[in-house]
Specification:
alpha+beta, four-stranded mixed β-sheet, 4 strands
């Protein structure tokens, strides 16, 4: 079974359990915390993905890092996943859990990349545009990239709208060279 299919199945199972125990929001926060810790700590990711490191050591590391910081349901899920020798996809499971949570709650995640910090009105306008496109509630992330010069790049799922000055200048340059 591919790691993606396995991560989808584990994430669905954890969502179902969290719904049954009425702790879906808290488990989502746990998954976001786990993803943040993994992203901030490359060594932890390497240890979890390393087949040479014994399962007991991986469980001990997860226990030390997370047992008192996350819901018991989330911690038990982590333990089960490690005992099934699937710890190498724990990060994928956490990301997939959040993706499925967003689908379940009707939330569209969008990222806007600009060369400057957005004002409140601009943020609200972009949020409204994304809501009109998707018909969903919007969770907007902002990323600064000064190389864009001006304009913006808006990413919604696998779609991208590029209205940056950098891209327009590159298009003009390609047209002149051709």
């Amino acid at each position: 079974m591919s790691s993606h299919r396995a991560s989808v199945r584990y994430a669905k199972s954890v969502i179902e359990l969290a719904q049954a125990q009425k702790s879906l929001e808290k488990v989502k926060e746990d998954m976001l915390l786990f993803t943040q810790v993994i992203n901030d700590n490359r060594e932890l990711e390497v240890v979890l993905k390393n087949p040479i490191v014994p399962t007991d050591k991986k469980k001990a590391i997860l226990k030390a890092l997370f047992e008192n910081r996350i819901q018991p349901l989330t911690y038990k899920a982590f333990e089960l996943i490690v005992s099934k020798n699937r710890e190498s996809i724990l990060d994928e499971i956490a990301v997939e859990f959040v993706n499925q949570y967003n689908v379940l709650k009707g939330i569209a995640v969008a990222t806007v990349i600009t060369p400057y910090k957005l004002g409140k009105e601009q943020r609200e306008e972009i949020t409204k545009i994304v809501a009109d496109i998707t018909g969903m509630k919007v969770e907007l992330a902002e990323v600064l990239d000064e190389t864009l010069i001006g304009g913006f790049v808006l990413k919604i799922g696998d779609k991208q709208i590029d209205e940056s000055v950098k891209t327009k200048l590159a298009n003009i340059q390609r047209a002149l060279v051709a």
